[in-house]
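Can't paste images in this forum, so I'm doing it all in text. The chain is below; anyone willing to post the predicted structure tokens underneath?
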Amino acid sequence: MAEDKVNYASVVFKSNHQQRSEVKKEETVYDEVKVQNRATEQTPVTNASAEFLPDKKSNSRCRHYQQLACCLGMLCIILVLGIIAVGVYHVTSIHEIDETEMNQLKENQTTLNAVNRNLTKLNNKLSSDNEDLKRNQTKLTLQMNNLTQVVTVLEKNVTNLTAENWNLRGKNEELEAEKKNLTNQIQDMTTSWNELNVSRAQWSIDAYCPKNKINNNRTCNVCQAGWLPFQSDCYAINNAELPDRKTWEGARENCTGKISDLAVVNNETEKNFVSGNSWWNSGNSAYWIGLRVEGGNWKWVDGRNLTNSSWITQAPTDGQCAISVKNEFKSVNCSEKNQWICKKKALTL
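Text version of the structure:
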């Protein structure tokens, strides 16, 4: 009896999934279904009916196996087609999703590029502003240094001014004390001046209106005692002894002390009066008058120039002063010592 052996092979389905950005492929590996019929060596059967029965059973099994194999094959084909359909759908969906994401990514990239450009512009602006700030900071630093120096100078000036203020306060106190002293001195001088004025008034009365020793009556004169009246003036002829004679400056100081000055001659009549009184007992008498050389010119003590050059024949020389001698004027050195004539206004009665 022939014996059939059926070998079954397993079917393995393998699918490889790649990344979403690539098209996914699925592979299906089929193994061959092999049916091996190994017939054992038939022993010779002598009986024909015996040979027929095993062949009939064997054919029935073969058909049965063939039908089963066909079913399995159809099932495999269906499964393969389903798998292919699912893969195609999956790939299509992934492709659509990839296109959508790609568009979105492109839009995002465009937006990011715009944002990047804006950020670049902003960065450039910030860099420019930063450079400006650095320059401004440098300027401010220089200004701050200058201001610091100015403040230092001002502080020194304030210190100096404060010290000067204290010094001025001290000086002010000293000045206040001096002012007080001067005020007191002025008051004293005012009192003395008033007393002096009274004394001088009394002196003037006594000088110009002396009392008569017999009846004590006063008789007033245009000139005080010892002065000669001439025209509207009074003249004092100082007939000093030789040891008491003075230089031109000394004689003028003496006249000033008598509220007068050295005699100034205005006309020929007055010249004759002065010259006529310019002698004493000695024939060599000489009297200082108010005429001397100033700036190369003969000038009177009242500031007028000598207009009549015939009154003195000597040329004007610095250091020379005029003296009056009998009937004429002469030029001598101002340092000589002579007598002198004073002149002042007479009173009007």
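The CA atoms of residues 257 and 265 lie 20 Å apart. The two ends are 208 Å apart (CA to CA).
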